[in-house]
Specification:
Distance between the termini: 164 Å
Number of helices: 9
Number of strands: 12
Order of helices and strands: HHHEHHEEEEEHHEHEEEHEE
Strand content: 15-25%
CATH topology of one domain: Rossmann fold
Length: 322
């Protein structure tokens, strides 16, 4: 019987298996449980492999085939950027694009020069000390509108720019409804009783002006700023109605109205003859005027009201005369 000597591969396999079995015998139970079984019975499975770092080349993106940047293209890009900056600088700094004309439309009591004097300092301003506000592309029309509203009471204001050097301001002023006298000063108030501007004393005292607007005299001297509430809308409406109703129904011309309290409930209407009519805003307006008409027809048939100081029609069933 002839025995063949085992080859070196089988010998190596037996030796490796024996060493591996000894290592497993020394490991604990948990190590054997969670140990990944990477060994195999294949003769070459337990042999170490050599891992060599390799460089792979994509034939479709080879460096020799990629486009190369040249100095000529860099120069072209730099020139394009410089040209763009130059064009922008021309639009922002050239005098051709500056606003030179300011047109004002719709103004009545406010002069064109006054509006232009407010707008011109805004145009000379430089935001961030770089751009000129007077430039057509930089000018902020909202800023101009807000600045004008701080100085004047407008019902409506519209600002537009016309290429490339004209600014058009179209305004609608709040019309005065009454003239309020406080101390020696006269003020215009709109339909809501808010201050919209000062009134000159000669204009407020003229006969033509009184025929158009009622005049209210305040018992306490006060100073008002733009849009301040001078008198309550309810009191003002009551006085405006009396300025129409009393002359129409009685023929008595009125000179002014004097509110007696902060609420504007009690009003003394001053006639052109100098005597006064006491009325109450919270009572029936029509009835008070009707009582006044009847008293004048009964007590003063001949229109002789010499020495008359006042007629009080505030109460429903009583009339006081002095």
């Amino acid at each position: 019987m002839i025995f063949k000597r085992p080859s070196s591969i089988h010998t190596t396999y037996r030796r490796a298996t024996t060493i591996h079995s000894r290592k497993l015998a020394r490991e604990g139970f948990l190590s054997k449980l969670f140990r990944r079984k990477t060994y195999s019975r294949h003769p070459k499975a337990f042999l170490r492999r050599d891992y060599v770092r390799k460089t792979f080349v994509n034939p479709y993106f080879h460096k020799s085939n990629m486009p190369q940047r040249t100095k000529a293209k860099k120069t072209k890009i730099s020139f394009s950027l410089a040209a763009l900056v130059g064009i922008v600088a021309v639009f922002l700094y050239h005098p051709f694009f500056d606003v030179h004309a300011i047109n004002v439309k719709g103004n009545q009591k406010i002069s064109v020069e006054d509006i232009q004097n407010i707008v011109k300092p805004i145009l000379e301003n430089r935001p961030l000390f770089i751009f000129k506000q007077k430039n057509f592309f930089v000018l902020n029309t909202d800023l101009v509108s807000e600045r004008l509203k701080k100085h004047y009471a407008f019902e409506k204001i519209s600002i537009s720019k016309s290429p490339f050097s004209t600014l058009t301001i179209e305004v609608s002023e709040r019309a005065p409804a009454v003239v309020v006298k406080s101390g020696v000063n006269f003020y215009y108030a709109d339909k809501d009783g808010k201050f919209i501007g000062p009134a000159d004393a000669p204009e407020a005292s003229s006969t033509n002006f009184l025929s158009r607007l009622p005049r209210i005299w305040l018992t306490q001297e006060k100073q008002f700023a733009l849009n301040d509430q001078i008198i309550s809308p309810a009191t003002q409406q009551f006085i405006i109605s009396l300025f129409k109703m009393i002359p129409d129904r009685t023929g008595i011309a009125l000179q002014g109205a004097i509110p007696q309290d902060e609420e504007g409930r009690l009003i003394h209407m001053v006639t052109a003859e100098g005597w006064q009519i006491y009325v109450d805003r919270q009572n029936d307006w029509e009835k008070q005027v009707t009582v006044l008409k009847n008293i004048l027809n009964i007590k003063f048939k001949n229109n002789n009201r010499t020495g008359l100081q006042y007629i009080d029609v505030r109460y429903e069933n009583r009339v006081y005369i002095k």
